[in-house]
Design goal:
9% strand, 6 helices, binds zinc ion
Length: 138
């Protein structure tokens, strides 16, 4: 399949909010696409909706940048659209932070061969994933 964005390169198929889209590696990088579920960064920025919990990791810098921007401009919330993502990001920010923390602990536990620890950390990560994106089915 040919990339739906640049129309030049060989593309990979993604399912994005029920729609099939085709993006090549180059456009994917430029667009910012979650490698797990194919959610576009631009979509995510618009709606505040992630396709999977990994989106928050994939777009972490952008999420944090958006949060910073939004917090600075809460008084100028002229657009109705921007309210929903703001709420979601606020909630999400702490979860993302916790997710990162647990994930780095898990990585360390695995490196150290601490499998009892790793198991309970994995369970923690899973419940965080569920909170981060309750709609996701894996
Ligand atoms: Zn392309
Ligand atoms: Zn994703």
């Amino acid at each position: 399949m040919i990339c739906g964005k640049c129309g030049k390169n060989q593309a990979q198929k993604y399912i994005l909010q029920g729609k099939e889209i085709f993006l090549c590696a180059e456009c994917r990088r430029k667009e910012g696409v979650c490698p797990e579920c194919g959610t576009l960064l631009s979509e995510f920025q618009k709606t505040g909706l992630a396709g999977c919990a990994y989106c928050y990791t994939a777009f972490r810098d952008e999420v944090l940048a958006m949060l910073g921007k939004m917090q600075g401009s809460t008084r100028h919330l002229g657009k109705v659209q921007s309210e929903r993502p703001l709420d979601r990001y606020e909630e999400t920010r702490e979860l993302v932070r916790e997710h990162d923390y647990v994930k780095s602990k898990l990585e360390r536990a695995i490196l150290n061969g601490d499998f009892a620890d790793a198991d309970s950390l994995k369970a923690q990560l899973e419940s965080l994933n569920k909170k981060l994106y309750p709609g996701v089915k894996k």
